[in-house]
Design a protein that fits this description.
One of its GO terms (cellular component) is cytosol. By secondary structure, the chain is α+β, with helices and mostly antiparallel strands. Helices cover about 20% and strands about 40% of the residues. It contains 4 helices and 11 strands.
Amino acid sequence: MQAVMEQKKKSDAMDATSREGKYLTFVLCGEEYGIEILKVREIIGIMNITPVPQTPGYMKGVINLRGKVIPVVDLRLKFGFQETDHTKETCIIVVEVKNKLTGVLVDTVSEVLDVSSEDLEPAPHLGEGINTEIFLGMAKIRNKVKILLDIDKVVGTEEIGMVENLTSVS
């Protein structure tokens, strides 16, 4: 039993080391989240989003960004939070997932944080039926917890399929 516990500690330490680095933090419903800075292509202010029929409610539509059609996912709705009116701080973070650009709508962008392995803890078990695979872990910075998201899993296969359908030319 002791050997199993020590192996788990080593595995968790290796995970923490592989997840340390720079994260762009943003706010949703008053809570701070972070995504790996290497996944971020740009941050833009809110702009006209063209709705697309027959997409899930969290898929707000598409934008034309310098001639490229990019789908936009509202993270509030994706996470089951209540929709809110856009403010001057609302912005779209353009991320690259599986070589496809997708915009994620957030309340506001905070800062870029350098997260070390000492700041990281694995995501807690939140009960049956709750998908914790979207979390890279929890960062404890300045007496606050920031939830680090695996954007590849947040904007998952379903969204990637929609992105390919929305941006392909017939």
